């Protein structure tokens, strides 16, 4: 946790006075939750139509921010707790969830990189042994749900195929923080003459911006990012973010993505303690972080929800603008698994087609990644490394 700097500490103390316990996550991407007193997620009975919902909301003084069709909900501003309680009494209103705030912190340390180097994590998961056979495959669509992706980065730009700004759909998904670009580079930086190279250098990257330039954003924007990913045919969603708050709307959103066939990967958290959310949900592949000696990082969250481990200490990758940076966190581990999942999706499902439908389903991808991981720590499954260190090369073998 050596890079958990003073800025983070001041955030912690700021949040300590909030009503919801400190959450956090993503390595350098620290994510915390606090009470956002007016902004709520109102979840309706699915049989209620939009007009009826809007009428209900208006009757209780709620100002609608947006709808979240994925989970039959609306994001609203409520003037007071009285309005919320009254709304809860109405038939058709299932629940009112906190629209918790999430924060990501990245330390700015861009350094120019004149020639391409292979980051140690890419080598460790043996991604480079997969590339030659992958060259002619259809690119897999990967959504990086984060601070955006640098639209001008020469080591990313050819792989960026689109995106969405859930905070303000009228604005760009360009990364004004750096964290999302770092994650994107580990997933799929270009195999060229400069900078770094990702696990899957031919993937199609989609920038789903849910955290702002300061690395903060509402949970509802994260949910909208997941919703966009489902609606736009994303095959893998990477979430290097999280919170200690277990909010039902978030679980519903990742479950909807999973049921739609989307592989969802998330960082386990940087608390050194229990796995955070969304990583802890069963529909999500939870990733802990290892160092270059294959030991679990001290900051890495751990517990029975961990599925896989991946490199997450001193990871060198692309950053905002045209920069590069070395960062640590489970935020950096998750994209190694996301990239590996994308490489698996480029191979025939074969014997892993548990439900016999001829295509990869999220549970089948997860099963193969787990079966082909390199066991670490105690023999077999354990709470630190899950099923072991992800290995892209093993995972794409028949
Ligand atoms: Ca290697
Ligand atoms: Ca490169
Ligand atoms: Ca299947
Ligand atoms: Ca083990």
Verbal overview:
This protein is α/β, with parallel strands linked by helices and 398 residues long. The chain starts with 5 loop residues before the first helix and ends with a helix. It has eleven helices and 15 strands. The longest helix has 16 residues, at 330-345. The strands form four sheets. Strands 7-8-6-10-11-12-13 form a seven-stranded parallel sheet, sandwiched between helices. The chain has a four-stranded antiparallel sheet with strand order 2-3-1-4, with helices on both faces. Residues 1-36 have low confidence and may be disordered. 57% of the residues are buried. The protein is globular and about 60 Å long. It has two domains: 37-98, 2-Layer Sandwich (Alpha-Beta Plaits), CATH 3.30.70; 120-396, Peptidase S8/S53 domain (Rossmann fold), CATH 3.40.50. α6 (179-188) runs parallel beside α9 (330-345), α7 (219-231) runs parallel beside α8 and α9 (330-345) crosses α10. The site of one calcium ion has 3 residues, from loops.
β-strand amount: 15-25%
Largest sheet: 7 strands, parallel
Pick out the low-confidence regions: 1-36
Mean pLDDT: 88
CATH fold descriptor of the largest domain: Rossmann fold
Count of DSSP-assigned helices: 11
Termini separation comes to 39 Å
Strand order of the largest sheet: 7-8-6-10-11-12-13
CATH superfamily of the largest domain: Peptidase S8/S53 domain
Summed up, what is this model?
A seven-stranded parallel beta sheet has the order 7-8-6-10-11-12-13, sandwiched between helices. The protein is 26% helix and 19% strand. The protein is of the alpha/beta class and 398 residues long.
């Amino acid at each position: 946790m050596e890079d958990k700097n003073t800025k983070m500490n001041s955030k912690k103390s700021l949040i300590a006075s909030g009503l919801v316990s400190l959450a956090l996550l993503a390595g350098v991407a620290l994510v915390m939750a606090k009470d956002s007193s007016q902004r709520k997620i109102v979840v309706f009975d699915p049989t209620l139509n939009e007009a009826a919902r809007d009428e209900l909301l208006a009757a209780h003084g709620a100002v609608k921010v947006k709808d979240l069709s994925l989970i039959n909900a609306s994001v609203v501003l409520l003037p007071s707790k009285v309005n919320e309680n009254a709304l809860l009494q109405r038939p058709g209103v299932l629940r009112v969830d906190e629209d918790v705030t999430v924060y990501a912190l990245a330390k700015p340390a861009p350094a120019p990189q004149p020639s391409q180097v292979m980051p140690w994590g890419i080598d460790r998961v043996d991604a480079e042994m997969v590339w030659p056979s992958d060259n002619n495959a259809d690119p897999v669509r990967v959504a990086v749900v984060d601070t955006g992706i640098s639209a001008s980065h020469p080591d990313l730009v050819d792989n960026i195929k689109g995106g969405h700004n859930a905070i303000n759909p009228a604005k760009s998904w360009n990364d004004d923080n750096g964290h999302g670009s770092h994650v994107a580079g580990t997933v799929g930086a270009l195999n060229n003459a400069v900078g770094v190279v990702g696990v899957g250098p031919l993937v199609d990257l989609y920038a789903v911006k849910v955290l702002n330039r300061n690395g903060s954003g509402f949970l509802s924007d994260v949910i909208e990012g997941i919703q966009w990913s489902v609606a736009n045919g994303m095959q893998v969603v990477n979430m290097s973010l999280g919170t200690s708050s277990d909010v039902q709307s978030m679980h519903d959103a990742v479950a909807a993505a999973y049921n739609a066939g989307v592989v969802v990967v998330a960082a386990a958290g940087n608390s050194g303690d229990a796995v955070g959310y969304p990583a802890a949900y069963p529909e999500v592949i939870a990733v802990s972080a290892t160092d270059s000696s294959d030991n679990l990082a001290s900051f890495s969250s751990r517990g029975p929800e961990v599925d896989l481990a991946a490199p997450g200490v001193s990871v060198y990758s692309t950053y905002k603008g045209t920069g590069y940076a070395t960062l640590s966190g489970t935020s950096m581990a998750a994209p190694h698994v996301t990239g590996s999942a994308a490489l698996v999706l480029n191979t025939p499902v074969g014997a892993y087609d548990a439900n016999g439908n001829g295509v990869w389903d999220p549970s089948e991808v997860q099963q193969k990644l787990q079966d082909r991981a390199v066991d670490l720590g105690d023999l077999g499954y354990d709470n630190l490394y899950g099923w072991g260190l992800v290995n892209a090369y093993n995972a794409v073998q028949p």
